[in-house]
Amino acid sequence: MSTYAIGDIQGCYDSFRRLLDSFAFDPARDRLWLVGDLVNRGPRSLETLRFVRSLGDSALTVLGNHDLYLLMVAAGHGKRGKDDTLGAILAAPDRDELLDWLRRQRLCHVENGFCLVHAGLLPQWTVKQARSLAAEVEAALAGDACAKFLAKMWGSEPDHWSGDLEGWPRLRVIVNAMTRMRFCSPTGVMDFHVKGEVAKAPHGFLPWFDVRGRKSADSVLVVGHWSALGLKLTPNLCALDSGCLWGGKLTALRLEDRALFQVDCAGGEAVPLHPGG
Question: Is the predicted pLDDT of residue 110 greater than 70, yes or no?
């Protein structure tokens, strides 16, 4: 059995299927680890959701910020973005089944020395602690209070973690770190304004994975979210968003031996916008 971690798909279904063909994916034998952002901005988000759901236990996905945005919009909260492509999902006859499946996916998955999460982990969190915190958000999404949580989920405050946080602010910080973060300060204050290259880091901030002494450094973090960062592989980081949506590549990494597979984004799927993630 091989495990293939795949970067942000964002509705680029045709590229996704070509990538699976490139390594002869067999759902009876192989597993997929998807870094989140299955949907939005690309042209075939509905087909992507249906296909990943149909794979059952052969595909494991964590939630990205665009997946959470879909759940929020479907619940009647937030303002629709002018560049979102969620209409087909929201109008689909199987909409409720797909959304119910999506809200029951994990925010963070830990297995065999790997931690799969969409954006990253705050420097003061161990992987064990992060998994426990993710479970708090997962319980809110899967439970009866889901609609109330989605109404309170979005926002950039608080911008740092404290063990004293409670209620919606506590869950919001967990969501923001795991699905939105790129830059943070050495003490874990998050910046949500800058989305570009590492060289554009705000004063006093750095990429979350470069914070000295971060407590998750003893595991291999498998992430996406940051298309301007591009593919970045180090001993303890596999950053896999290589910008398929923006005309780049869709990337898969076989975790057992770090074999790399890539396809160019299909011409009709590339979006003529500046990458943000």
Answer: yes
